[in-house]
Amino acid sequence: MPQKKLSRWAILPIFALLLAGLSGCTTQELSRGFLPGVTGVTNHTERIVQLWNGSWIVLYIVGIIAWGLMFWAIIVYRRRKGDREIPPQLRYNMPIETLFTVVPFILVVGFFVQTTVDMNAIEKKVDSDYRIEAIGKQWSWDFNYTNNNVYETGIQLQGDDKEADLPTLYLPVNKTIEIDLVSRDVIHSFWVIDFLYKKDVFPGFVNKMYFTPQVIGEYKGKCAELCGEFHSMMLFNVKVVSQEDYDAQMEKLAQMGNTGQLSANPDDPNFNRNNNLPGDDPENRD
Predict the structure, then answer these.
(1) Are residues 175 and 49 in the same domain?
(2) Under 8 Å between Cβ of 176 and 124
(3) Given the DSSP bridges, would you call strands 235-241 and 168-172 parallel, antiparallel or unpaired?
(4) I need a surface site. Which of 45, 128, 151, 267 has the fewest CB within 10 A?
(5) What value does the mean pLDDT take over residues 68-89?
(6) Over 60: is that where the pLDDT of 228 sits?
(7) Does the pLDDT at position 141 exceed 50?
(8) Which residue, among 182, 177, 191, 181, has the nearest Cα to 131 in the 3D structure?
(9) Which residues have C-beta within 8 Å of that of residue 121, sequence separation ≥ 6?
(10) Which residue has the higher pLDDT, 284 or 54?
(11) Which residues constitute the domain of residue 115?
């Protein structure tokens, strides 16, 4: 291949690196594979990041080899000026066909095994310091703090200027948390974005999550399962705070009269639908 053409091919990776740099990608974003959040938000996030990045590295290696072989065949066996004959027709190349069968099989098994190992670690039942019941409802969330016998009940987003009205889940930093997930009506999905993990919320069935929040801060949560008309407004906030701030919030809820536990029974007529719909004069819906 002429030197001029080789230099053109060499420019491509340089151009790709420049494009990534000009797009504003930081070192941290690249190291996390562009996943949201910061390092070590929970005790599980780095395991998830490693699985994500490792999968992409393997896939890029396979892709580079495949693309390299493809372009090599295109260039080396291209039709040249003056060619008039049909090239030799080949088939039943057993080494290549074996390669195309074995490599995908190894990849699928490898991804399956590593995913299973990580899922078992994330889903492993542990002794928790605090148990919280998160109840999904159309279209918001209720939180029962069972250790403190208090609760918070929420309504869905009423507008862009009313995010402060969203329910807020308080979590003490560096404490093991068990969250029991249940729905009063339809299937929802509990997702704290920066925690890099979500789980479906079913009526009449309790799903569980175990994790330890490790970084104090405020995080966004939402329902990740299409659940009806105001699904996009089924948002909540999460605050990971110090033990002192957590205790103060529990005391505040008690002083507000939010003592006891809200029912998670989907057949309870008092909780069958969140009637606080968006608008100045929301209509009640049964």
Answers:
(1) no
(2) no
(3) parallel
(4) 267
(5) 84
(6) yes
(7) yes
(8) 177
(9) 44, 47
(10) 54
(11) 32-80+87-123
